[in-house]
Design goal:
By secondary structure, this protein is mainly alpha-helical. The protein has one domain (2-323). The protein is 66% helix and 2% strand. It has helices spanning 2-24, 31-41, 62-88, 93-104, 115-150, 162-179, 184-201, 213-221, 225-250, 275-290, 296-323, and strands spanning 56-58, 159-161. It has a two-stranded antiparallel ribbon with strand order 1-2. It is elongated. 35% of the residues are buried. Residues 107-119 have low confidence and may be disordered. Bound molecules: NADP nicotinamide-adenine-dinucleotide phosphate. NADP nicotinamide-adenine-dinucleotide phosphate binds next to helix 9, helix 10 and helix 11. Residues 43-45, 59, 62, 152-155, 158, 171, 241, 248, 251-252, 261-262, 264, 276-277, 280, 305, 308-309 line the site of NADP nicotinamide-adenine-dinucleotide phosphate.
Length: 339
């Protein structure tokens, strides 16, 4: 089942990346295909001139992505965390911590024990790593939910293509799952087992959980440098996205019309047209680094985010150049000094 889930997730990410990459190739023969992919990806201001308004939903439905993401990520995080706590408590503490640091440093000679023991201790470390990555995801989707509710002033006539809407819903199911896919099947088994026991045997006969905050949090603090470098990159992008979203949300204040578009200034808007997309790429790059870079599924997730947002940023940049004669000429689309 594990290979099945991992394989499915990878196939889905590749299926999402390929059309965008092909549509981005600079061949005139691909013009029609580029137009089609762009129609699906359009939203808000760049959708104003679209002839396909029938197949659209309001752009404020973006909040649905984050409502679902918060519920799903919280569920995965809690299950993984409790599962990690239970499995870690099965191993004597000194062996567990030495195996964590050795595993994260890429060491293969982790335990001078039987090979089977070595595999299971490696796996326990990967479960704690999943908890760490899901914590980062939780921090991201919680902020995004609050922003869609309290920061952005969505234009009532702003729309997005229904295909983009469904892709967004899929993204926020698959992205948190990709961060814990190596342990997801056994974790689901653990979760359903606990629930079944609770239903069949009742609360009183279930194994009592002796809850110790120290053991619940301490393995996370003992993770390696990769995780802390990744978290630093993540929060660097996170803070800039917060600032750029605050700028976007404030553009329609002070008596400006709810449907009016203006040139944003400040923070990374001084160098690129879509700094909030750039920040999102940095946030996911932080997750790749925090994962240790060895999980191909997380790389595919990152590649999808890059392809999707670079594609959208290119169109947004063209829209700004068409709309405003006085648009700052030094601004690029998304990657400072490059693109
Ligand atoms: N992980 C992923 O694959 C993924 C995919 C998509 C989005 N996202 C993230 O979600 C966030 C929001 O994305 P989005 O595409 O919805 O952003 P967006 O199109 O830039 O819109 C964000 C908000 O700002 C307003 N706005 C944008 N430009 C404006 C301007 N020049 N003047 C006035 N108001 C303006 C929009 O108004 P309207 O209501 O009129 O549009 C909307 O309310 C981004 O940070 C992005 O990174 C992530």
């Amino acid at each position: 089942m594990e290979i099945g889930l991992v394989g499915l997730l990878r196939a889905a990410w590749i299926a999402g990346i390929l059309p965008i990459v092909i549509a981005s190739l600079p061949y005139s023969r691909l013009g029609l295909f580029h137009g089609l992919v762009l129609e699906f990806a359009k939203r808000g201001k760049i959708m104003q001139s679209s002839p396909y308004h029938k197949f659209t939903v309001p752009q404020r439905f973006f909040s649905h992505f984050y409502m679902m993401a918060v519920v799903w990520t919280t569920l995965l995080l809690l299950t993984t965390w409790i599962y990690a706590y239970r499995t870690a408590s099965l191993v004597p503490e000194p062996y567990f911590y030495s195996s964590i640091s050795s595993y994260l440093a890429g060491g293969s000679n982790i335990f001078p024990f039987h090979k089977l023991h070595l595999i299971s201790s490696e796996h326990r470390c990967s479960i704690w790593l999943s908890v760490f990555l899901l914590l980062l995801m939780e921090v991201q989707v919680l902020r995004r939910l609050l922003e869609t509710m309290y920061v952005f002033n969505y234009n009532p006539s702003a729309r997005m293509h229904i295909f983009g809407y469904l892709t967004g819903l899929y993204f926020y199911v698959a992205a948190p799952l990709s961060l814990c896919c190596t342990c997801a099947p056994e974790m689901f088994k653990f979760g359903t087992n606990e629930i079944t026991q609770f239903i069949v045997k009742g609360k009183d006969t279930m194994q009592a959980i002796e809850f110790d905050w120290y053991d619940f949090v301490n393995p996370l603090l003992k993770l390696g440098w990769c995780q802390w470098v990744g978290a630093t990159i993540f929060f660097w992008g996170w803070i800039h996205q917060l600032r750029c979203h605050a700028i976007l949300g404030s553009l329609r204040e002070h008596g400006r019309g709810i449907d009016e578009y203006v040139i944003p200034y400040g923070d990374w808007f001084e160098i690129v047209s879509s700094p909030h997309y750039l920040a999102e790429i940095i946030i996911y790059a932080g997750m790749v680094v925090a994962s240790g870079g060895a999980d191909l599924t997380i790389w595919f997730l990152f590649a999808f985010v890059v392809a999707n947002l670079v594609f959208a940023a290119a169109e947004t940049h063209r829209w700004y150049l068409r709309k405003f004669d006085n648009y700052p000429s030094n601004r690029l689309a998304i990657i400072p000094f490059i693109y």
